[in-house]
Amino acid sequence: MFIYDPDRSCSTDDQIRADLKPMTTILLMLLKKINIVIDVLVIERITTTSKQSNSGDCGVYAIKYIEFLSISRQAELVNGFHMPKWRRKLAVELYTFDCTP
């Protein structure tokens, strides 16, 4: 059973794996639909990343973590120092995005 815990630093790796198991099952099924077939998703917990200092940057942190990991950059480089610049950059990208078909 998933219990919301805003501070996951106290959770064990086994607890996190158990909480994420339903999501990994769904993700594997979605990947299979687009012809990407893998047997197992490996969950890697990174504990050396910085924590956000407010309650409003979690989405920007998540986007930057995904971006950094997808281009093989160290996730530890994501920190609050650049957050105002990244927040403005994301806002401009979303504002100027052309979503016409």
Plain-language structure description:
This protein is an all-alpha fold and 101 residues long. Helices cover 48% and strands 0% of the residues. The protein is built from three helices and no strands. The longest helix has 21 residues. The chain is globular and about 40 Å long. It starts with 12 loop residues before the first helix and ends in a 5-residue tail after the last helix.
Summarize the topology.
Blueprint: H1 13-33, H2 58-70, H3 83-96
- Return the string of H and E elements: HHH
Number of separate strands: 0
pLDDT < 50 stretches: none
Ends apart, CA distance between termini: 41 Å
- Overall pLDDT score: 81
The oligomeric state is: single chain
Portion of residues in helices?
40-55%
